[in-house]
């Protein structure tokens, strides 16, 4: 199984490789205002189109595998996520560039999205999944720790953000059997949320 194979979905979300046609969907969402909180400065400028162009260029080079997320129930745009720093030799991959519309946070959408991404990585025989997250984002870090991800450390003043501030980067990971446990926990959470 390849990380970029079509058919990445579950009952809650469908993930499709990010394409030029997604520019309008993402541009029309709340992502543009939220991007200043989490995107690093890039050489081509700090505006939405520069970031979108960079994502497509990195996808073409194979340095990331970005997806647009669609909620299955109604076809609504549900955000973006990407595989980062893929190493087939060392069987490791990162998951990052995650954004969901505010109204979908706290629903089954983010949980099902992580379930799909971690499940696909496991199916592709990855033995290490990394999560680089702004150290200030304690909510996301706590969520991953509840899955069994371990905080490995913090890279201090790692990057300058689009708003000009500097951010520390926390690195969390799941390895080996922790991946399977996380998938099972995510499945249980999605099932509970769908019943609620």
Describe this structure in words.
The protein has a single domain, classed as Aminopeptidase, CATH 3.40.630. It is globular and about 40 Å long. Strands 1-2-3-4-5-6-8-7 form an 8-stranded mixed β-sheet, with helices on both faces. The longest helix is centred in the last third of the chain and has 19 residues. The chain contains 6 helices and 8 strands, in the order ββαααβββαβαββα. α4 runs antiparallel to α6. It starts with 7 loop residues before the first strand and ends with a helix. 37% of the residues lie in helices and 32% in strands. InterPro entries: Acyl_CoA_acyltransferase, GNAT_dom. GO terms for molecular function: acyltransferase activity, transferring groups other than amino-acyl groups. It comes from Hyphomonas johnsonii MHS-2.
C-alpha Rg (nearest Å)? 16 Å
Helix percentage range: 25-40%
Computed structural class: alpha+beta
Mean pLDDT: 91
- How many separate helices? 6
Low-confidence stretches: none
The global form is: globular
Task: Compute the separation of the termini in Å.
Answer: 33 Å
CATH evolutionary superfamily: Gcn5-related N-acetyltransferase (GNAT)
Proportion in β-strands? 25-35%
Please indicate the count of domains.
Answer: 1
Please provide the ordered H/E string of secondary-structure elements. EEHHHEEEHEHEEH
Quantity of strands, as a count: 8
Task: State the strand order across the main sheet.
Answer: 1-2-3-4-5-6-8-7
CATH architecture: 3-Layer(aba) Sandwich
CATH class: Alpha Beta
Briefly note the CATH topology name: Aminopeptidase
Domain N-acetyltransferase: 18-150
GO molecular function, one term: acyltransferase activity, transferring groups other than amino-acyl groups
Protein name: N-acetyltransferase domain-containing protein
């Amino acid at each position: 199984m390849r990380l970029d194979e079509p058919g990445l979905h579950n009952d809650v979300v469908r993930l499709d490789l990010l394409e030029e046609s997604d520019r309008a969907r993402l541009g029309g969402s709340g992502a543009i205002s939220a991007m200043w909180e989490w995107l690093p400065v890039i050489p081509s400028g700090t505006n939405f189109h520069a970031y979108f162009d960079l994502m497509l260029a990195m996808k073409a080079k194979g340095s990331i595998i970005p997806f647009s997320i669609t909620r299955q129930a109604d076809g609504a745009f549900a955000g973006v996520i990407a595989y980062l720093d893929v190493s087939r030799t060392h069987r490791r991959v990162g998951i990052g560039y995650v954004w969901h519309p505010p109204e979908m946070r706290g629903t089954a959408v983010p949980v099902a999205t992580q379930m799909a991404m971690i499940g696909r990585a496991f199916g592709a025989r990855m033995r290490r999944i990394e999560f680089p997250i702004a150290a200030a984002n304690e909510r996301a870090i706590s969520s991953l720790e509840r899955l069994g991800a371990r905080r490995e450390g913090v890279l201090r003043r790692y990057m300058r953000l689009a708003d000009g501030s500097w951010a520390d980067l926390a690195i969390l990971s799941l390895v080996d059997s922790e991946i399977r446990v996380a998938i099972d926990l995510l499945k249980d959470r999605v099932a509970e949320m769908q019943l609620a």
